[in-house]
Design goal:
Rossmann fold; 3 domains; alpha/beta; seven-stranded mixed beta sheet; four-stranded parallel beta sheet; 22 helices
Length: 591
């Protein structure tokens, strides 16, 4: 077997540097079923991943800890890796033996999983959690089960809620700190109280004896032990993020880890909302042991009650516009992360990745989230707080700052840019000019973005030279570094629905041919016959144009007819280019 090159940094692995490494990486991605090009319906694209992870073109992101990837890269079974495999095997055996519908299915599923498990032990390429997910799917489908732990999770929430009405809870939450608080401003005192409450509810949300034991009654010594825990860096980090000096209100994505603990997580969330922050709570899409799911509320009255004031987004591919509208109108939004496994950013939904992108901070609970976010040396696009209990029952608090290369384009900035363009349009109208918006291909032809910009700018210059009294909006002239396709579409929709457009022109084949003529070039084969209908972005804009025209009938739409557009599916997530054309005649899909 060919030798793989030495790898000094597991967060700086690139394709195209070594053929044998490329082959191994592709095999790794295929075996774990996380390769987007092979299974684009369930695996995130590189553009979607970049909403969450700071990765360059051609850079590999692995959804596991560095030490796990290092073990898999050795292509041999190390003791540490074998221990991981055996742990998931024990969890699966417990499910098969205790929740199988009958003895025949139990034996069949167990035998099938043994075949799969044995193959992996002989050739360890699979991340243990991905192997676990594969066998878990087999078990659930063969037994026609959706959530074998539903009753257990309901009991956990019930016990946690019951504990909140015990004297032990009130002693824990209400007891004054041993040191007397001192402050120079009342804001500082208020923050001290908020900080104390946050720490205590975080502590309760990881104290699993509360919900695992019936009628849990801690004695004074246990309460004092929990109250006296010292979390290194907690005060400094929390004060920097939420303290009185920070007037900026944060958008927070909150990832819980256990039912039961969710009862106290909600108290943390209410505290943050009271301080003026907005929270998006991400639950699992389906069964993953004790993790709460989006659908538990239908069977669990306690979880339903906890989320009474929340606005729930069930759509797995909510657009940026839809998500921001929900977030703007509600302090608490609940979504699914789109997966039924340990946090795997390749398998999270579009809605989740957008929630991550629109957040300022990720709060992630539990060891599983800690391993995926803190013990992975990649940098992420948002600050991350992780809390979990270790094997010694000590609360561990970790903070990981976002990549220094990442700049978040805020909704406020996008709105300001849109308003500036609208003011220019309004001023042009006041001067008696006609406003023309030009929709054209920019990134719809892979590898042709630079050419598309030349084509667009050349034709707009030509129109400006041939027309008078016309204010022409060229989208290419309003790009800002850091903005992706989602940001641009969101900004342009605000502009487009303003009612200030007199003529909306869509790029035609003749426009493109004229551009190449003006540039002194022949039309390349890849551009032959292309027009705005080839662009998913333009297709979305045609829908908007028709909608705007209903409200403002005097607006003209010129270019290819609307019926020629309605063959494309939705706009690619975070892309300047498109997803595939739907091949079923008459089926237009969603835009």
């Amino acid at each position: 077997m060919s030798t793989l090159p030495h790898i000094s940094s597991y967060s700086r692995i690139y394709y195209g540097q070594d053929p044998y490494l490329d082959a191994w990486l592709l095999h790794f991605m295929l075996e774990n079923n996380i390769e987007h090009l092979v299974n684009p319906r369930v695996n995130a694209s590189a553009e979607q991943l970049r909403f969450m992870v700071d990765i360059n073109e051609g850079q590999l992101f692995t959804p596991c800890t560095d030490w796990m990837f290092a073990n898999l890269l050795q292509t041999r079974m190390s003791p540490e890796l074998k221990k991981e495999y055996l742990e998931i095997w024990k969890k699966l055996i417990f499910l098969i033996r205790n929740y199988s519908s009958d003895d025949f299915i139990k034996k069949k599923v167990l035998s099938l999983c043994r075949h799969i498990f044995g193959k992996v032990l002989r050739s360890p390429f699979m991340i243990p959690s991905r192997l676990h997910k594969r066998m878990l799917d087999i078990f659930l489908s063969q037994n026609s089960l959706q959530d074998p732990y539903l009753e257990r999770k309901c009991a956990y929430n019930r016990r946690a809620l019951e504990f909140m009405h015990t004297p032990g809870f009130f002693r824990f939450i209400s007891s004054c700190p041993s040191s007397t608080m001192s402050c120079e401003r009342i804001q500082d005192l208020r923050w001290e109280l908020d900080l104390l409450e946050l720490k205590r509810f975080f502590c309760l949300s990881t104290w699993d004896s509360i919900w695992r034991e019936e009628d849990f009654t801690p004695d004074q010594q246990e309460i004092e032990q929990e109250l006296s825990r010292i979390w290194q860096g907690f005060r400094e980090v929390m004060t920097r993020l939420f303290g009185p000096e920070n007037v900026y209100r944060l958008k927070i994505l909150y990832l819980p880890s256990q039912s039961g603990g969710l009862v106290f997580d909600m108290q943390v969330i209410y505290n943050l909302i009271r301080q003026g922050h907005k929270v998006t709570l991400a639950l699992k899409e389906g069964f993953y042991y004790e993790y709460p799911t989006l659908w538990d509320s239908y069977a669990d009255n306690i979880q339903a009650h906890l989320l009474t004031d929340a606005s729930i987004i069930e759509e797995s591919q909510a657009s940026k516009n839809e998500f921001l509208k929900k977030q703007r109108e509600n302090n608490l939004v609940v979504i699914s992360d789109g997966s039924r496994e340990r946090l795997n950013l390749y398998r999270t939904s579009v809605t989740f990745s957008r929630a991550w992108k629109e957040s300022d901070l990720i709060i992630a609970k539990g060891l599983g989230n800690y391993r995926r976010l803190i013990q992975n040396s990649h940098y992420f696009t948002r600050d991350i707080l992780c809390l979990y209990r270790d094997d010694h029952n000590e609360v561990q608090f970790e903070f990981k700052a976002k990549s220094i290369r990442v700049r978040k384009i805020t909704e406020k900035e996008i709105l300001a840019k849109a308003e500036k363009i609208k003011r220019q349009m309004a001023e042009a109208r006041m001067q008696g000019q006609m406003v023309l918006f030009y929709s054209a291909i920019i990134g719809s032809i892979p590898g042709q973005t630079k050419t598309a910009l030349r084509v667009l700018n050349t034709f707009v210059d030509y129109m400006r030279s041939r027309t008078s009294g016309t204010f022409i909006i060229n989208p290419a002239e309003h790009f800002e570094q850091g903005m992706d396709g989602d940001d641009l579409m969101y900004m342009w929709e605000i502009v487009q629905r303003s009612g200030l457009i007199d003529v909306w022109r869509f790029q035609s084949v003749r426009d493109i041919e004229k551009s190449f003529e003006l540039m002194g070039e022949r039309v390349p084969p890849v551009w032959a016959g292309k027009d705005a209908t080839f662009s998913t972005g333009c297709t979305k804009e045609m829908h908007i144009a028709l909608d705007v025209q209903k409200k403002y009938p005097e607006m003209q739409i010129i270019g290819p007819g609307p019926e020629q557009f309605f063959r494309r599916r939705e706009y690619g997530v975070g892309k300047f280019f498109d997803v595939n054309i739907d091949k079923e005649p008459g089926k237009y899909g969603r835009f």
